[in-house]
């Protein structure tokens, strides 16, 4: 496979998977968390635990999309130095940096630790006050991080689409 074809394939896959991640984060911000937010504390926490368990068990499509977006975007950014010039190169590098720092870093440093802590809770043995406290420690912080990473992901995805148009 020639390098131009490999680069274009990586850029296409990176753009596609980044758009899928954007949609996932957007759906959580717009629908999933507000829907769960209408539930009482135990049901909210239990519902999120179950959603997170699907992810933590390594759902194959989720893994391909999530990790594939990182690997393909980093590979495309590295290859972009030899395949692109000018504004297209700058936009690709910016998209990759934004995605790593604004989406992946908050996920690994914020959302995942919150999820992991939530998984340690035995909700059936907790009283109402403990459930309310656990929810308060989880929900606002998780939602803030998710809205932030969603906005950054949208910007990174738009930049990737522009790079695709320019190349």
Approximately what portion of the residues adopt beta-strand conformation?
under 5%
Largest sheet: none
Order of helices and strands: HHHHH
* Dominant shape: elongated
User: What helical percentage do the residues reach?
Assistant: over 70%
- Mean pLDDT across all residues, rounded? 97
Please, how many helices?
Answer: 5
Structural class: mainly alpha
Computed Rg:
18 Å
What's the arrangement of secondary structure elements?
Layout: H1 3-37, H2 41-56, H3 60-83, H4 86-119, H5 128-166
Helix pairs in contact: 1-3, 1-5, 2-5, 3-4, 4-5
Could you characterize what this model shows?
With 167 residues, this protein is mainly alpha-helical. Helices cover 89% and strands 0% of the residues.
What key attributes describe this structure?
single chain; 167 residues; mainly alpha; 5 helices; elongated
Structure summarized in a few sentences:
This protein has 167 residues and is mainly alpha-helical.
């Amino acid at each position: 496979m020639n390098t131009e074809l490999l680069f274009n394939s990586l850029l296409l896959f990176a753009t596609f998977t980044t758009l899928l991640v954007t949609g996932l984060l957007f759906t959580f911000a717009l629908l999933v968390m507000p829907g769960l937010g209408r539930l009482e504390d135990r049901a909210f926490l239990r519902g999120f635990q179950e959603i997170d368990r699907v992810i933590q068990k390594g759902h194959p499509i989720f893994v391909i999309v999530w990790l594939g977006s990182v690997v393909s975007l980093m590979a495309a950014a590295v290859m972009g130095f030899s395949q692109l010039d000018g504004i297209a190169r700058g936009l690709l590098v910016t998209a990759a940096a934004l995605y790593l720092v604004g989406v992946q870093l908050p996920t690994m440093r914020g959302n995942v630790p919150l999820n992991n802590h939530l998984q340690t809770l035995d909700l059936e043995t907790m009283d109402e006050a403990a459930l309310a406290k656990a929810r308060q420690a989880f929900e606002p912080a998780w939602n803030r991080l998710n809205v932030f990473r969603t906005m950054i992901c949208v910007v990174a995805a738009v930049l990737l689409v522009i790079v695709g148009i320019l190349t």
